[in-house]
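Ops channel
N.P.: pipeline sanity check, posting one input/output pair.
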């Protein structure tokens, strides 16, 4: 878990220079960023050759913590803000992470080689759920999963979900360890 601590150290250091996150208390970083990111792992199984794309990667959440604990996942971080993308590249180098790339473009402008190439697409604080689904759909292989973390009070109708080309696989409501912070992990499967 040394890499998780290194990641937190780098996040705090860079957060003084550029605004990566409003959360600055170390305990809150662990609970609301690291544990929340790792909760995404409840939404999918790790299989050989799995590929994950994180839309609007920002400070690398959830993808960097996931990559640290599951290094076999081939990971693409998409972040259009150049300063944040620089931070992500720095973290990848500093933590010696492999099979991971940082793409500093808007998600809508990614070239065709990214289309239908991923098993998992994640997004955290990217947009509302339906916008995240419609934006991420083209990057998923058919049958691929979109995994999102939201507050437990957020709801959607099955009609909205189905219109977006997805089916709801699971909605896991949990309280993050060592806190009373509640999250819902939404798991959607691309059906069209």
């Amino acid at each position: 878990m040394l890499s998780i601590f290194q990641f937190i150290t780098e996040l705090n250091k860079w957060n003084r220079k550029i605004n990566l996150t409003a959360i600055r208390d170390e305990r809150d970083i662990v609970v609301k960023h690291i544990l929340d990111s790792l909760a995404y792992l409840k939404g999918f199984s790790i299989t050989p050759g799995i590929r994950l794309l994180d839309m609007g990667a920002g400070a690398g959440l959830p993808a960097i913590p996931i990559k640290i604990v599951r290094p076999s996942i081939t990971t693409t971080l998409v972040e259009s803000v150049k300063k944040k993308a620089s931070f992500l590249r720095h973290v990848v180098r500093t933590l010696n992470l492999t099979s991971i790339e940082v793409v500093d473009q808007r998600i809508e402008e990614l070239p065709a080689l990214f289309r239908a190439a991923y098993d998992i697409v994640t997004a955290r604080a990217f947009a509302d759920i339906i916008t995240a689904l419609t934006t991420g759909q083209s990057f998923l292989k058919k049958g691929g999963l979109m995994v999102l973390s939201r507050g437990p009070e957020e709801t959607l109708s099955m009609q909205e979900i189905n219109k977006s080309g997805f089916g709801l696989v699971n909605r896991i409501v949990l309280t993050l360890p060592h806190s009373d912070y509640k999250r819902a992990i939404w798991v959607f499967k691309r059906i069209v």
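N.P.: looks fine end to end. The chain is about 30% helix and 25% strand.
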